[in-house]
Design a protein that fits this description.
Number of strands: 4
Strand content: 15-25%
Radius of gyration: 15 Å
Number of helices: 5
Main location: membrane
InterPro entries: Glut_rich_SH3-bd, SH3BGR, Thioredoxin-like_sf
Subunit structure: Monomer. Interacts with PFN1/Profilin-1. Interacts with ERBB2. Interacts with ATG12. Interacts with BECN1. Interacts with translating ribosomes.
Structural class: alpha+beta
Distance between the termini: 29 Å
Helix content: 40-55%
GO cellular component, one term: nucleus
Shape: elongated
Strand order of the largest sheet: 2-1-3-4
GO molecular function: SH3 domain binding
């Protein structure tokens, strides 16, 4: 399973750049493998992302903005969903991955099962 993060390499928005760096930095720091898909430099990536973000996760107007996160082709969420999962020590579940032993998330899951 491959985590795919759709980003815009040439976004004029500092807020979008910061959110993208936040997601990518977290994945790198936690050694979670991922592919970066640039929607600014590749029309196919942009088209695929726009078509695969579910209707109920799209903004009322316009297109979904990066970063958008997928596990293979399964939509996992946007930055806000990622941020909430991170705050709740549930990023692996959010990504559709098994938390590694010894991680805060794995420890929290073990306590819930007791």
């Amino acid at each position: 399973m491959v985590i795919r993060v759709y980003i815009a390499s040439s976004s004029g928005s500092t807020a979008i750049k910061k959110k993208q760096q936040d997601v990518l930095g977290f994945l790198e720091a936690n050694k979670i493998g991922f592919e970066e898909k640039d929607i600014a430099a590749n029309e196919e990536n942009r088209k695929w992302m726009r078509e695969n973000v579910p209707e109920d996760s799209r903004p009322a107007t316009g297109y979904p903005l990066p970063p958008q996160i997928f596990n293979e082709s399964q939509y996992r969420g946007d930055y806000d969903a990622f941020f909430e999962a991170r705050e709740n020590n549930a990023v692996y579940a959010f990504l559709g991955l098994t938390a590694p032993p010894g991680s805060k998330e794995a420890e929290a899951q073990a306590k819930q099962q007791e």
